[in-house]
Structure formats: C-alpha cells, structure tokens
Specification:
heterodimer; B: alpha/beta; Cytochrome-c3 Hydrogenase, Chain A, domain 2; 2 domains; two-stranded antiparallel sheet; elongated; binds iron/sulfur cluster
Chain lengths: 480, 361
C-alpha cells in the first residue's frame, strides 16, 4: 500500500487536501481535510444580533448571498418579523442569480477544464473539448465569464453589489426597485436565457426541462452545445460509474415564498420511491477527527473552539450527521427530493449518486432556475412594499435553513439581551467533505473516492479530480 | 507545450527570441515587453476577491489579463495545475528560476496558533501560508494585497481574533503585519493594498495594469498603502442620495430613499473609495442598494458594533464627515433641515418617489 497526499487541490473554493491509501492501483481509503480555519463562529459571539448580516456572509465569497439568506432567516426565526411578499421575492431573485452563477462557474471554470488536460489527448473527443474548455485559454470561458458578469447585474439592482451585500434583511430587502429596474431584471434573465439556449444547451429551455428519462438525455447528447459535449465524454469515460455512493440525500428547501418552496426540504434515500420529511432535530456535528475541542454535538448548543494539536485530528471541518449517518447534499439531492424524474432515474440506474448524476443535476438546474427567475422578476408588485421593520430588541433562538448552490446551509443562532450567544453554521460542503465521525464512518467524499482507479498516474489521476469536483466543493464554507 | 512550460520559456531571458508574440496585443508587442508574470495565492480568504475580479472584462478576465500583457503563472480557482504541478511552479519561483513580477495575495495571514501559522497550511505541504507568503513576497517585483483581509486583517482579525490574523503589511492600522514594517518589494514599493471587502474588480485590475505600465509609484499610494486613484475619494462622492444628504433628509428604516447617514449607520462620508462613482455589478453600490457603507476599505472596519445604527451623542452623529469641524456641520445641518424642499422631505421617508420634481410656485 502507498499513501499519497494530494494538494494544493485547486479549482475548488478554498483549501482542500486528500490523503489517499492506494492498493493495487485503486484508492482503498481516503481522508479529506480542510486546511484553513478562520474562527467565524467565535467572531460572531458577543456581537449585536443584526451584525451577523455583516460578518456571516464574509465566510464565503462564492455563496455570500446564500449566507446572507441563512443569517436573515435565522434572525427572522428569532424576531418573528414577516417580510412582505415582494421582499421575499426580491431576495429570492438575488439568491437565484447567485446560485445560477455558481453553477455556471463550476461547469465552465472548475469542472470541465480537467477534460482538457493532456492526459486525455488520445481520446476521440479531445480536440474539440480542449479548444473549448482548456483552463484560461479555452473559448468557452470567453463567453461564459461575460454571461456570468451580466447575470450578476441582478445584484447591482437588488443587492447593491456582490459579493458581500447587506440588502437581504429579516424584514425583506433594503430597496424597492423602480419600474425601469424591474424591466432591467427581466431583460437580464432574458439575455442569460438566450445565452444558455445558444451556448450551453443549444435548445429552448422548455425542451431542456422536459428531458425526463436517461434515453431522452442520451438523445440530447447527440446535438450541439456544451452540455451535450459533456454528456458525450461522460458516456465514453463512464462517469456514471465514478464516485458512486448511496447515502441519504438531504435538502433544506430553496426559494421559499407564500406558496411554499420551489424545491422542498426533505430526505431521499437512493433506492426509495419517495422523499421523506427531514428530521431537522436529528442533525448533529461530530468532532472526533477535527482539530476542535469536544463540545455539544447539537448545533443549537455548540460552541466552536480550535485545538490544533488534537490527537487523531486531520481536518478543521466538523462531521455533520443526520440520525447518525453521513448525508450528501447539493443539486442532485435537491432534484431527487423534488421528484425530478430524470435525476431519480439516473440515481436508480447507477444505484446511487455519481459524478455524472451530480453534474447533470447541476446543469439541468441552471435551466429550471433561469425559467423561474424570469417569472419571479415579472411577479414583483412595484406598488407594494419590500420591507417590514422588525422589533428593535430580540431574544431567543432560531435556525435559518436555505439551499446554497452546493446544498443545505443552516445557521443556528441564539440571542441573549440582543447579543449573539451562540452561532453555528453547517454548510453544504461540511456535509459532503466531512471527516470521519466517532464511529469511524467516513464522510461522503471519503466514501466516493474508495475504489477509484489511479493506475500509473497516481495522485495525478484525473479520475480523482473528477470525483472531487463533481461535488462542487466550497472549502471556505466547510470549516469557517 | 503546457501552460507552465510556456510560461517558463517566456521567463527565461536567454530565450526571448523564442517568445511567441502571437498571443500578445500589438501595443504591448511594440513596446517589446515580455509579459509580466502574476501569481495569485489565497490565504485566510473567502474567495470573494476572486469572485469580484472574475466579473472584469468584456470578454472575461482571462482575455483582459492577456490584453494588458499579464501571464498568469497560477491562480487557485482558475488554473489547470493541481497538486504537485502547483508545488513545482512555486518551487521554481522560490529558486529564482521563474521571474515573479506581481504577487497577489487574497485573504488574511493567520499567524496562530502561537506564531506557527498552522491555522492555514498550504495543502499538500507542511508549510503555512505565512511562511510561503514571506518567501514569495521577497522575490516579487511588486506585492499586492487584494482585499481588506490581505491589507489589514479584515473580518478574520475581528474580535476575539481567534487565529492572530493580520494583513501582509499591516496589522489593523499598525504597520508591520506578516511581512514586517521594513518590507519593500524588489522594485522598492511597500505592499499595495487594494482594500475593500470585496474590492471593486476595477480597483484590482487597474492596480495590476498600472504596475505593468510602470505608472504606479509609492507617491500614488495613500497613508495605508492604498492606490490613491480610488482611495483619494470618499464613498459618499456621487451617491444617488446626495440631495437628501444636503438637506439632512434621512431614511428612518431600510428601503426608504433618504440619506442613510443620520440613522442607518452610513459611514461613506468618512470611508475611502470611489464606490459611488463606479458601477458595481452593472450599476449598483452599497448605498444605492439601500444599506449603509460600513467602510469596508478601512483597517478595523470589522470591529464596529451595530453596523446599521448611527452612533449619536445627544442626538448628533458621532462620526462626522472626515474633515468637517463639528460646529459647521451643526449649523449647516440645522440650516439645511429648515430649508428642505417638501419633495425631498417626503421622498426621504418613502420607499418610492411620492413627489416628482417640478417648478416651485
Ligand atoms: S447615504 Fe451615505 S453615501 Fe449616500 S449621501 Fe448619505 S451619507 Fe452620503
Ligand atoms: S460604499 Fe463603503 S462599504 Fe461599500 S464598498 Fe465602498 S467603502 Fe465598502
């Protein structure tokens, strides 16, 4: 057996290190570590409750607005303030723009460039893929980056700026858009739609979201567009067999509004027929292998304190568990829980989630979200208010649960005399890239890496890169 | 040839004749400049500065870099190289075999625990970012701190400062930081602090560009090492609420259109940055978005309490405009309040325009 240490692992957000035990050319055991700790949960304690809106989003520059949404939701749970429907809608529009931008960034900048590595130079599909997706010089980024920037103009209209905005408040948003701005929002989503219909899908979005079976997906793969190019190379590399796990899938529910959520909260077990409610009270965080002091495992009660010398510690991240089990979160979980027939079929066919299903779910979500965003911008009722003032002094405890692009994000907050007494953040990649727990059970990525063939390439095997990046990890959120 | 291989060939002075200029725009070619090399590392960061700079450029950031004659040696979010390939690039720079023109660091430098830097280890190595940053900064022609974290410490340095976080050249407002008071890059400049949380993409790119053209000297930096082209302005300049400010017609709660200074914590009259003279994300800004400027370009901005409330003594805001004597401000405020047009007064306390401008009677 040989032991490989893989790092610095790039094209993920933040700091990731893998320790891989290799036996007979395959990964036999994997340990996933985050190598950065900044202490946000310590920094939040003792501050006035509303200041969480300044501090917490700065955990992460790529899902800053999701962090704002979670912090605002936690404060709302404590204060009981109800934002007007417009406030909710405007916040959702900004949130959806961030999530679409993140998915796009992942596909074009983080994930696809690995297939443009010289390693694949002999593959029949290589020349086209290399021209299109080569890191820094590929043609696709020259289109995707401006499209991303233009989409983020939504932030200029609703959030003031991105990343790190204070526009999202428990009582709604800080600005009521004018008619011209509503028109600009609609135009931005329209323009983005035109971009993905031309470049990513090369098909009308209605046609894309109607893809309900793996067979229809295979049909789409024969056409033009960047998604189809991915589908074809995924088929030839059998990405469906790569990084496969069958853990419970969880979602906290996304884009809440008067009529419920666009994607519901829930839990889905691969192999099950239906999604189940999510037992939120069964979430615990284990620190047996973390560089952290033992503390309450209940995020509502825990206080985070670092211990760099901790015996057995190998990551700054905690190990979240649902009813004692690791769980996977992200677009694939969201779509499976929402009952998307294609994603459920892909999971059923492979006997679990895998590199292919994760990426398909994410890209298909771009189509769904873009359609929803256009409708929401249209639904803003400019004659009504966008903000409700909440009580001045707040006290008590609450949880803010949202879906960031990468999955379930929760902020557990308790406030005493207006000041933050405890603050715990459980982020999507904390779930997906968790270390082992006290029972020695590895986290989702640690399980997904087992069995991956490294062959002669060893640590450089692209398969490792694909499995890791299929989760779209954000390490700055993972330990914070 | 791989990206790195090409970078290396282009960086070897003896091989200048082998340079392929096909990728370089004509103006740069005419100046016969080799491209400037840029390495970007993330220390104790959130990645937000990178997210910001990726908004730059009509054809995207990568094309923009190429157009200004910058060759990206490596960037953690966008480069192909991973793992050992990255370590090889860093090694060549440290051994002096690859020239490092511009060294950008994003994120605070975490010195803890006990000066070990262990809170932020470069994965794949046993070295801290503290150690690597010091080593590379000594080899760089120019060193750029991207964002308030790398400039002064930023949010990670917020009380109780769990990781002993600081900036490259400052620990809060104290000179020193990770590199020490006497640090100068090879071209004799202190660290250039592109402060902001996150900074405007233009601040980052115009700074980098000015370094490539030789237009940025020590005289072009303010007292905290921030480029004066944005730091010589106040965030208040050009705010869409300026008319409300003039008449002290103020918003009382979020979403009202009035000035945010009197009640809602706006510090823009004391905060540096041309924030309201540039479009953020196509046309926004903090105050345009309806929330206070929290002076994110300043050292210690993170230590404020109650960001959304204006601290007052006897009803008078404590933080008055930077260079305005208090008595003047009081007199002017009283005068302008008494002269406030009806339209301005009404609109300040509404979330939409309720009274249109029209000719006075
Ligand atoms: S809101 Fe702030 S930036 Fe705008 S006018 Fe008032 S004080 Fe100046
Ligand atoms: S307006 Fe203030 S808080 Fe906003 S970016 Fe400028 S300096 Fe930072």
């Amino acid at each position: 057996m040989t032991r490989l240490v893989v790092g610095p692992f790039n094209r993920v957000e933040g700091d990731l290190e893998l320790t891989l035990d290799i036996a007979e050319g395959r990964v036999s055991e994997a340990r996933v570590a985050t190598t950065l700790y900044r202490g946000f949960e310590q920094i939040l304690i003792g501050r006035p409750a509303a200041d969480a809106l300044v501090i917490a989003p700065r955990i992460c520059g790529i899902c800053s607005l999701s962090q704002s949404m979670a912090a605002a939701a936690a404060l709302r749970a404590v204060s009981g303030v109800q934002p007007p429907p417009n406030g909710e809608l405007a916040a959702n529009i900004a949130h959806i723009a961030e999530n679409i931008a993140d998915h796009l960034t992942h596909f074009y900048l983080f994930f696809m460039p690995d297939f443009a590595r010289d390693f694949y130079a002999d593959a029949a599909w290589f020349p086209g893929v290399a021209t299109r997706f080569k890191a820094l010089s590929g043609a696709a980024a020259q289109e995707a980056l401006p499209a991303r920037a233009r989409l983020l103009h939504v932030m200029g209209l609703i959030a003031g700026k991105w990343p790190h905005s204070l526009a999202i408040q428990p009582g709604g948003v800080t600005r009521a858009p004018e008619l011209g701005e509503k028109m600009r929002l609609i135009a931005i989503f329209g323009e983005f739609r035109a971009f993905i219909e031309k470049v990513l899908f090369a098909a009308p979005l209605e046609q894309v979201v109607a893809i309900a079976t793996p067979e229809q997906l295979a049909e789409h793969a024969q056409g033009p567009g960047d998604f189809a190019a991915f589908l074809r190379l995924a088929e030839s590399l059998r990405l469906e067999n790569l990084g496969r796990i069958a853990l419970p899938l969880i979602s906290f529910g996304a884009y809440h509004g008067a009529d419920g959520a666009l994607f519901p909260a829930g839990r889905f077990d691969p192999g099950a027929r239906e999604a189940n409610p999510l037992p939120i009270g069964k979430i615990r965080e284990d620190v047996a292998f973390s560089f952290l002091h033992e503390n309450s495992a209940d995020p509502a009660l825990a206080v985070t304190l670092p211990d760099a010398e901790r015996e057995n510690g190998y990551s700054w991240a905690k190990a979240p568990r649902l009813s004692g089990n690791p769980a996977e979160t992200g677009a694939v979980a969201r779509q499976a829980i929402a009952g998307d027939p294609l994603i459920r079929a892909l999971i059923a066919r492979a006997g679990g989630t895998n590199v292919f299903a994760r990426v398909v779910a994410r890209v298909m979500e771009i189509a769904r979200l873009t359609l929803a965003a256009g409708d929401w911008a249209q639904a803003l009722r400019l004659k009504e208010g966008f903000f409700t003032r909440g009580p001045a002094a707040i006290e008590g405890a609450g949880v803010g649960m949202v879906e960031a692009a990468r999955g379930a994000l929760g902020h557990w907050l308790s406030v005493e005399k207006g000041l933050i007494r405890r603050y715990q953040i459980v982020a999507p990649t904390t779930w997906n890239f968790s270390p082992r727990d006290a029972d020695g059970v590895p986290g989702p990525l640690e399980q997904a890496l087992v069995g991956v063939e490294t062959g002669a390439a060893g640590a450089k095997a692209p398969a490792i890169q694909h499995v890791v990046r299929s989760f779209d990890p954000c390490m700055v959120c993972t330990a914070h | 040839m791989t990206h790195v291989g090409r970078a290396l060939a282009e960086n070897n002075p003896r091989q200048t004749s082998l340079l392929k200029f096909g990728d370089i725009p004509a103006n740069v070619r005419a100046m016969n400049h080799a491209p400037k090399t840029l390495l970007w590392l993330q220390a104790g960061s959130c990645g937000g500065c990178t997210m910001s700079v990726l908004e730059q450029g009509a054809s995207g950031w990568f094309v923009e870099l190429k157009n200004i004659g910058v060759l990206l040696l490596w960037h953690p979010s966008v480069s192909e190289e991973s793992g050992a390939e990255v370590l090889a690039i860093l090694d060549l720079i440290e051994r002096g075999e690859t020239r490092l023109d511009i060294f950008c660091v994003e994120g605070s430098i975490l010195r803890g625990p006990n000066g070990s830097g262990k809170f932020n280890r470069l994965s794949g190595t046993n070295r801290s970012l503290l150690d690597i940053t010091r080593s590379l900064a000594a080899r760089a022609d120019f060193c750029v701190a991207v964002g308030t974290c790398a400039s002064f410490g930023g949010v990670p340095a917020g009380e109780p400062d769990p990781t002993d976080a600081c900036g490259l050249h400052y620990d809060g407002s104290e000179i020193g930081g990770a590199l020490g008071r006497g640090y100068r890059s090879k071209k004799g400049l202190p660290v250039i602090n592109v402060a902001g949380c996150a900074p405007h993409p233009g601040w980052i790119m115009e700074t980098i560009q000015a370094l490539t053209t030789g237009d940025l000297s020590a005289d072009d930096l303010d007292v905290f090492g921030r480029p004066a082209f944005f730091a010589a302005h106040l965030a208040h300049h050009g705010c869409s609420r300026n008319e409300f400010y003039e008449f002290k017609a103020s918003a009382r709660v979020f979403s009202e259109r009035g000035c945010l200074m009197e009640h809602l914590g706006c510090k823009a009259t004391q905060a540096i940055g041309d924030c309201n003279q540039r479009a953020w994300n196509g046309g926004g800004s903090c105050t345009h978005g309806g929330f206070a400027c929290i002076s994110c370009t300043a050292p210690h901005f993170e230590d404020v309490r109650n960001f959304d409330v204006t601290p007052k003594i006897a009803g008078i805001p404590v933080g008055l405009p930077l260079d305005m004597p208090k008595a003047w401000f009081m007199t002017l405020a009283a005068l302008s309040k008494s002269a406030t047009p009806e339209r301005v007064r009404k609109n300040a306390e509404a979330d939409r325009i309720v009274e249109n401008p029209r000719r006075g009677k």
